[in-house]
Amino acid sequence: MYFLCFSIFVCFYFHFVFYTGITTIIWILIQLFILMEVGVRIVGIVLRVLNFLLAPLFWLHWRKQDPLRVPPIQNPVLLQSASELAEAIRSGKLTSEEVVTTFISRIHEVNPHINAVVQDLMCTAVYRAREADLLLREVRLRGEIDELIVTKPLLGVPFTIKESCSLKSMSNSVGCLEHRGRTAREDGRAVQLVTEAGAIPLLISNTPELCLGWETTNLLHGATNNPYRLSTTPGGSSGGEAALLASGASALSVSSDIAGSIRIPAAYCGVFGHKPTPGIISIEGHVPTLTDENYPKFLTVGPMTRYAEDLPLLLSVMAGQQAHRLELQRPVAVDRLRIYHMTEATKSIALLSVHPAIQQAVLKATDYLHNKCGATLCAEKFKELEESVEMSVSVFFAMKDIPNMLQDPLNPKHEKSLLMEIIKYFTGNGSRSLQALGFALLRSKLLFIPRRRLAHHRERARRLRTIMMEKLGTDGVLLYPVHNSLAHYHNQVFLRASGVMYSMLFNVLGFPATVVPMGLHDGLPVAIQVIAAPYQDRLCLAVAKQLEERFGGWQPIV
């Protein structure tokens, strides 16, 4: 405090000696060195300056593709929710074969534009659809349709799977060149439960290398495009799934989230995504997997959908015997909720500001829930979120066995040179994508946070978790950005990476969060996330449904 008072005095002195610009610079430097982690802020400032300087170059490079998007949906079957499709199949209004072949046709139509499919099993899917239709005819004759709703609530409905979540006999390389040709020995547990509920897998979709990136691109399968604007990214690491859903080429998705990997793609592509409370949905069969005891606390397998009503259904199925812990069937009275909201974590000069459209979406959602739905507005802010970057990096990179992207697969004891790998990438001989190499740099340097300070930030994260659990309780939610930007151009992720602070921290804290699309801005989706205390997932889902009714949710591409 004495240092801060002294710094203020010094700045006032300089104000009378020099002109205002110098005073401002000195004040900024004092703030950096007294109040913040210097290394983190310097990196942030450099990236912010580069983002400003290079933004015109990204626009010039991609401007010819800017108007391009996937073809609009023509078949009304593709506009129905998974819940509606399941009911239509059960009632006989549609056959599973009709539904599955309709989605297959849509996949063939859009995938040349978005490049989301790694491997498909469409012929098998049609065969399974015919089997589902035969089963339904038998069940109707026996009058056992009500039992089928309980045992196979998704019978005949097609779904898609993020490659890392594992589908038996299908590609399991997860974007790595050295794993080319590797297949999954078994279904991941969540995939298995969805299949047992009667849903029919269509394909597995693209990810970054080992899911270690926030843009879906790798040297094995290339980059996936955002269906709303093909020159932009769908995010990562579940970008393939988000792009398929947003295109109307998937009804349901099994995905995963360890640092915003469901939520950022859902936000960029304007669909619903839920990161559940950890431990509810099994991560068995997920690639990669770590031996660290904290890994299951950070990684969650979860659902992505086009409609809010499908989230609790798919979440319940994926949770299996753990579903009862979430009490998803228990009604939520929105008018009795307490609403916290923040349009950004901090106004630090080291971080990009949250896009105005996202800030407005948070405010509009807050106003609607308070003034129209009767929820109680809480003015208090969680100031501790200002240090989200430091807390996230300090906790996340404390895990053991985080994949080393510089490890030589032919000689595991040998670590490649980062500089040489970057040079090889730009000469076309690289074995890692530029994004993977960026992750390797982040892993090794920890954003220049001094190692002596890591324990301090981990303790701050622990305290923040306690504070937020107490404040949110069993009836409170926080409305918050998912990222600081809308979907950005391909490869711009390096300059916008700080935006993951809005999602990554809630993996570290273990809180559930639901992404809610809130409309379009300049043709790109705008979304927010609804965060609740652990095991209060149903609050997130109820708010998502309420906001969908007011703001429209997923917007089909026209």
TrEMBL record:
Residue ranges annotated for the Amidase domain, each copy included: 98-541
Pfam families: Amidase
Protein name (record): Fatty-acid amide hydrolase 2-A isoform X1
MF GO annotations: hydrolase activity
Keyword Membrane: yes
Gene3D superfamilies: Amidase signature (AS) domain
UniProt KW keywords: Hydrolase, Membrane, Transmembrane, Transmembrane helix
Listed InterPro entries: Amidase_dom, AS_sf, FAAH2
Domain of life: Eukaryota
Residue ranges of the TM segments: 6-30, 42-62
Transmembrane is among the record's keywords: yes
